[in-house]
Amino acid sequence: MPTSGDQSAGRRNPDDRKPNANVDSTSIMRIKNLQLRAKMIVHGFYNGLHRSPIHGSSVEFSEYRPYSVGDDLRGLDWKRYARSDRYFIKKFEDETNRRCYLVVDQSKSMGYGSLEYTKIEYARTIAATIAHFLMLQRDNVGLLTFDEEIGDYISAQTRVGHFHHLLVALSRPLQGKGTDIDAPLRQIAGLIRRRGLVILISDLLTSIQTLQTNLAYLRSRGHEVVILRVLDPAEFDFQIDKPSMVLDVESGREIYIDPDAARQDYQTKFNEHRQQLGDVCDSLGVDHYEISTDDSMDDALFHIVDAQSRRGKSTARGGMLVGAAKAAGGQP
């Protein structure tokens, strides 16, 4: 699926939404235990890594800085010197101390689903899978859930029992109605002191302007941001064929829909919102991916790998993932 590195970032063809055979979504979602789901998806992902072209070292460098007298000469980048005739030092960052925060939308709109399961069930599974995967690498993983208010907040840790606490918070039933994307992103920006990775999992049925402001603030503080936009297949196309009364799950209002009058308006607004989201993410260097709930369940992990490998520090992070797979012997 395209990423925010090109003009089609995050924009998918509605006619090209066929589930990947790696980890079939319907089969996985029939498993009631969230922890077991996550482990099975990670297992499928590790198997997929054996076919992946991603390679690199196990430590990533975060940035360059000019050489100063007294710096360790082992950090000099001689290739960069050959190109620029100036001395630069690579600043390295130990990936085992990485901090990742999962920000998961639990508003009422996430309770929609035209399949055997809803968007929130799919999103929870993605979040649990990413958490399990990163914790296998000894990365610190935290969680913040939200609807119109902030729900659970769990700080980023790797201690024994931490994954269970994440699963408990992810499994709470939907309670709020609306979506306030402002509060959780502002809180995460204030809580993460060191440069970290923020993964936002949401249908993003919210104001683009508010989202842009908060994404810009996160990026200005040096955080990497990846957006996984989760949508139901029915949301890509207007699928009401006859006049109907529909319920807005976030406002509670019933709305009369004339499909002939509403279809074009819906598609126009959906595509405009999608385009605006893509433009904002492109301008801020935020990787974003549009995921349909009928997509293969391991796609989200591949998107995270892709987001890291497409950045300036990409090769190293990709190598970290491959190294983790080898260390685990291809097993989660």
TrEMBL record:
Coiled coil feature spans: none
SUPFAM superfamilies, per the entry: vWA-like
Pfam families xrefs: DUF58
Region listing for Disordered, in residue ranges: 1-24
Residue ranges of the TM segments: none
InterPro entries reported in the protein's UniProt record: DUF58, vWFA_dom_sf
Gene3D superfamilies: von Willebrand factor, type A domain (3.40.50.410)
Domain of life: Bacteria
DUF58 domain location: 63-275
CDD domains registered for this protein in UniProt: vWFA (cd00198)
Identification of the protein by name: VWA domain containing CoxE-like protein
